[in-house]
Amino acid sequence: MGLGGTQEFGRYTDMEVQGSKREFEHPKFALPVDSEHKATEFRLYSIAAPHMRAFHLSWISFFSCFVSTFAAPPLIPIIRDNLNLTATDIGNAGIASVSGAVFARIAMGSACDLFGPRLASASLILLTAPAVYFTSIANSPVSFLLVRFFTGFSLATFVSTQFWMSSMFSSPVVGTANGFAGGWGNLGGGATQLIMPLVFGVIRDIGATKFTAWRISFFIPALFQTLSAFAILIFGKDLPDGNFSGLHKSGDKQKDKFSKVFYHAITNYRGWILALTYGYCFGVELTIDNIIAEYFYDKFNLKLHTAGIIAASFGLANIFSRPAGGFISDAMAKTFGMRGRLWSLWVVQTLGGVFCIILGQVDSLTASIAVMIIFSVFVQAACGLTFGIVPFVSRRSLGVISGMTGGGGNVGAVLTQLIFFKGSKYSKETGITLMGIMIICCTLPMMLIYFPQWGGMFFGPSKQVATEEDYYLSEWNSKEKEKGLHQASLKFADNSRSEIGRKVMSATTTPDEIPSTNV
Amino acid sequence: MASSASGLLLASLLLSCLIHACYGDILFSSLQRTLQVTTSTRQGVLEAGEDKVNVTWGLNQTLSSGIDSAYKTVKLKLCFAPISQKDRAWRKTVDLLKKDKTCTFKIVERPYDKAVQTIDWTIERDVPTGSYFVRVYAFNAEGHEVAYGQSTDDRKTTNFFDIQAISGRHASLDIASVCFSAFSVVSLFGFFYNEKRKARNAQQK
């Protein structure tokens, strides 16, 4: 492994030789892969198994869950008359729709660690589909709240998406893969604001009355959800080499203990900090999804249809802004390593807070739309940037860490809606401005994140010898290491060495070494 | 002195109302209540789509004649009682008629007739559950509201009738929901069983 001598980064002198072996063509895989068989390239237009196929399966199924969870808001004007809802009922249902996923996401993280993303996500999707079907037969404020609550659990598929991408794609492209999968899934929240009114209109024109047409409409997202789960089960694979169950049986993958996995996740402070900061990019995004149509409708007296289109454009920006965040994370990491990932997340998310404050202050329609779009780009890019960092926080407990961060996102959504957008304490404009201030404050803790082997925002890597192996193997005790349970983490540590950043690495190259061409 | 000042105030108020009216910004408070409206329904809560509301309206005979010279058409509207507007900002009463959401359901539109009119209206299937009264607006030739009448008093405290909306549910929808839900869950376990079976077969080989 070449744990170099007293020189600060002496161990990297071996890297140039190893670097060229870091990715290679493998006969079984269409894309170049690393030693864990994770793809080192991300090719959007390919559907080659297993890597790109996993990508398309995961984003489409996550998209369907978003469509289902936010299928009700665009039809609220009809539903509220049918079910005799008050503004309080509607607000409570909105909070319920995002609160279920708080714990579901953590549970999903554990399930991914233990059973694999394929079974975990397909199970959740099929078990929450009944909630969407039952929305068609809701007949009171209570039943409406319950179906929105249980449908919202499906947003936990976000965690399996990120886990799956982190299992299929290598460090240099993991941010990009996570960003596209998360962003294109989040798109569902915007697409549904266009899809549901369209479906409703068609069904009503065929001849159904309003109060029946909206009910029939819900079968569309429900069926889409069911079918996407089938596709995952039939076409998906947990890891490039196969499914968890197959690999467990053949001995290639060790089955892990839930208590250990959970322990190593909750004792890692970085997971908690990222959970907090994610609440102020993704959580804010969910809150805006729930309130922005009404904001534009009331403030500028727009038609509901027009307000809906503006609301949709907020969610639709995800098609490029979240992937852009992931891409920026990977690009910064190439030169500056993990420190670049941390800095770019802090800058982008803080700017998101600034634009949120401005959104609450502007008074004209054009300015509001323009600021909202800029705000959406920054906030969604911050989400993508967050999941450029999450895959590196833990290897053994990747699922639970992803789940904690994801769950933290939903906690942020619940909190911001409760504090700023429930009842009449603040006008919506004031609420938005205050939310922007809270974003800036709650992004500051990022400065506390420190990786001994790579550094943090203000400090470089540890002066003592601290390697990737030290960090990732600290999650296993000696007994487990004797049994060889830590092999996957060992491989990951090796593959993650690029996170030190080319700038630091080139500073340690001696003149006789071959300059590294690819990390 | 005082009378001329108040006369001036009144004149300017009327003028501003007129200007508003010219620009379509008609305030409800500027309308005169010249029509008399009465409603009659059967006892109990009415069912949307089935029950009828009988509305009778006409000019208040005690007023001076000629007051209705500008009236060209009348629109009958179903309006929410205050209790059905509570905690529902989308049904708010606002003085500016363009923005007012009190009366969102149109019953009928007819040309104005000096004689007393009546209509037996079947409640439409898209009327939500709530307490209601009926208001009649009189329009002039430009299509602006100029007068009104309503079946409740000025402070909207009396004489409401309750409507129960249709549920919109059908037995076929209920059955479809349950069947598809059951299918989702059962197929999940089917997949699990299949996986276990395949893994067992692979091990046996």
TrEMBL record, chain A:
Recorded topology in the membrane: Multi-pass membrane protein
SUPFAM superfamilies per the UniProt record, alphabetical: MFS general substrate transporter (SSF103473)
Keyword Transmembrane: yes
Residue ranges constituting the Major facilitator superfamily (MFS) profile domain according to the UniProt record: 54-453
Record's subcellular location: Membrane
Signal peptide (residue range): none
Transmembrane helix recorded as keyword: yes
Principal location class: membrane
Swiss-Prot/TrEMBL keywords: Membrane, Nitrate assimilation, Transmembrane, Transmembrane helix
UniProt cross-references to PROSITE patterns, sorted A to Z: MFS (PS50850)
TM region positions: 59-78, 119-138, 145-164, 184-204, 216-236, 304-321, 342-362, 368-393, 400-420, 432-451
InterPro entries documented for this protein: MFS (IPR011701), MFS_dom (IPR020846), MFS_trans_sf (IPR036259), NO3_transporter (IPR044772)
Similarity section: Belongs to the major facilitator superfamily. Nitrate/nitrite porter (TC 2.A.1.8) family.
Cited PANTHER family: HIGH-AFFINITY NITRATE TRANSPORTER 2.3
Annotated protein name in UniProt: Major facilitator superfamily (MFS) profile domain-containing protein
TrEMBL record, chain B:
Signal peptide: 1-24
Keyword Electron transport part of the UniProt annotation: no
Protein's UniProt keywords contain Transmembrane helix: yes
Keywords of this entry: Cell membrane, Membrane, Nitrate assimilation, Signal, Transmembrane, Transmembrane helix
Transmembrane feature ranges: 175-193
Cross-referenced InterPro entries: Transptr_NO3_Nar2
Function: Involved in nitrate transport.
Family: Belongs to the NAR2 family.
The protein's name: High-affinity nitrate transporter
Organism, scientific name: Xanthoceras sorbifolium
Lineage, highest ranks first: Eukaryota, Viridiplantae, Streptophyta, Embryophyta, Tracheophyta
